[in-house]
Specification:
Blueprint: E1 2-10, E2 14-21, E3 26-34, H1 41-53, E4 61-70, E5 77-81, H2 85-98, E6 102-107, H3 113-120, E7 126-129, H4 139-151, E8 157-159, H5 166-175, E9 180-182, H6 195-213, H7 217-222, E10 225-229, H8 230-243, E11 254-259, E12 264-269, E13 279-282, E14 289-294, H9 303-316, H10 324-333, H11 342-363, E15 366-372, E16 375-381, E17 390-394, H12 396-399, H13 404-408, E18 427-430, H14 436-445, H15 447-459
Parallel strand pairs: 1-4, 4-10, 5-6, 5-7, 7-8, 8-9, 11-17, 13-16, 17-18
Antiparallel strand pairs: 1-2, 2-3, 11-12, 12-14, 15-16
């Protein structure tokens, strides 16, 4: 009898199961069913598990561990509060996104009473409070802590700001019995970001506090742990694949494009320094593992927003359909819609091409030319991803598409947009078995095994 891990993704729409033989390092079977967080999360799981059991011999496979990630019930919803929008606010946002959160809004400087009320009404899971470099401004973070202590008592707080303000912030929160934890400053020095400690604290709060509020209590009793939000599991898998493990070499710089019903996520695993000489790197430091989330680029819930973002003209570049508004509205109103004929399949692929193009345009860095008395100066903002080795596509529309490479090619460099630093000659791969989030979970326990499975099922396939 072979030992296996059962890896579970309680997704926003589907609960997806992946059964992995950890001795043979093979995917034994996968299954999925609608996520049922509104009633009992285990109803959807039980249906998916019943389907899974029909695909393998229970006398030959022993499940020794069950691990899960979740983006059910709207995922992990956060707001971030900092000092300067382009500095600590942006650093906090990047840390939260890298932890798999949905950042509903960011706030800068001293928050107003209207902003406090806005946060109250958002049903936020965690507030990330930052502000000031170490030794810099501490007045604003202390004032914001006072307002949070009085008005937002029920929301867990992660404090990642100026270390010189921590003693006063602790005193304020202790006096008001606020649930909070502290960690290292997300921006200890000007333009230097420090996102990893913040990500770990977000995951810690997610595991301890958030799961129960998402109706996941029943699942906790059955499985061995809900380790992380789903997007963070995908980022973890991408990072292992790119950098390798303590014993295995990674495949190098890569980009993952994940197109969903509500958002398009882009993960880049690359330093992103200028690939050509004579270019000045400007702006805030970028994290090696960077995730951006485009809330207006989705196949169903965000179909109308995608139409607004790209416009009919761009969508028509990829489809001959005339009723573009009608089709986008139908998808927005029917989020479980699955295309059954060629026209609808082609239209979904056209939307996916627009989502890929716009999401990559926003994710990658760009070159700005400045004219000085000494001549032209080239400045780079964001990541240079021109030399990235791979683009990997995942998400339902890509995995089930007949033309996934054509969708992902829209994420490549274009001579029509020469200042955008998109990959020039990447190898394009598809997560056909839809295993990235599962491998992110497996990587917490068995990183070598997760790496080799991803190589086998995604890169070498």
């Amino acid at each position: 009898m072979n030992n296996a891990y059962l890896l579970i993704d309680f997704g926003s729409t589907y609960t997806k199961l992946t059964l992995v033989d950890i001795e043979k390092e093979e995917i034994i079977a996968t299954s999925k069913s609608i996520t049922t967080v509104e009633t009992n999360i285990m109803e959807g799981f039980d249906k998916a598990f019943h389907l899974l059991k029909q695909k393998y011999d229970e006398n030959k496979i022993k499940i020794i561990k069950k691990l899960a990630c979740s983006s059910a019930a709207g995922g992990l919803k956060m707001v971030t509060i900092g000092l300067v929008p382009e500095l600590t606010v942006e650093a906090g946002k990047r840390a939260a996104l890298g932890a798999g959160a949905r950042v509903l809004k960011t706030y800068s400087y001293e928050i107003t009473n209207d902003e406090v009320n806005e946060i109250k009404n958002m049903k936020v899971d965690i507030i990330l409070l930052s502000g000031g470099t170490d030794g810099g401004n501490k007045k604003i973070i202390i004032e914001n802590a006072k307002k949070i202590a009085v008005n937002l008592k029920h929301i867990p707080i992660i404090v990642a700001g100026n270390k010189c303000a921590l003693d006063e912030v602790r005193t304020i929160f202790d006096e008001h019995n606020i649930h909070y934890i502290t960690t290292e400053n997300v921006m200890p020095k000007l333009n230097e970001i420090n996102v990893i400690p913040v990500r770990e604290k977000i995951r810690e709060v997610f595991m301890k506090n958030i799961i129960k509020s998402k109706g996941m209590d029943g699942a906790e009793a059955f499985i061995d742990g809900i380790l992380t939000p789903t997007p963070a599991a995908v980022l973890k898998a991408s990072e292992i694949l790119s950098k390798g493990t303590n014993r295995l070499s990674g495949i190098g710089d890569l980009i993952v494009v994940d197109i969903g019903g509500a958002t398009t996520d882009v993960h880049s695993l690359a330093e992103g320094y200028p690939s050509k000489s004579g270019i000045n790197l400007k702006g805030l430091q970028e994290p090696f593992a960077k995730r951006t989330v485009e809330g207006d680029l989705g196949m169903r819930y965000s179909a109308l927003a995608l139409l607004e973002a790209g416009g009919e003209k761009m969508i028509k570049e990829f489809t001959s359909t005339e009723d573009i508004l009608k089709k986008c509205r139908y998808r927005h109103d029917n989020i479980e819609f699955v295309p059954q004929n060629k026209e609808d399949i082609d239209f979904d692929e056209a939307l996916a091409k627009v989502a890929t193009k716009l999401a990559l345009n926003r994710h990658v860095g760009y070159i700005e030319i400045a004219y000085t008395p000494l001549g032209e100066v080239f400045n780079q903002y964001g990541k240079d991803l021109l030399e990235v080795n791979y683009i990997i596509g995942t998400g339902g529309v890509i995995v089930h598409s007949h033309h996934p490479l054509e969708i992902l090619e829209l994420g490549m460099f274009s001579k029509q947009e020469p200042t955008l630093l998109k990959p020039k000659n990447p190898v394009i791969k598809v997560d056909e078995s839809y295993i990235l989030s599962a491998m992110g979970l497996l990587a917490y326990d068995l990183p070598d095994c997760a790496f080799r499975i991803m190589k086998k099922y995604i890169i070498d396939k």
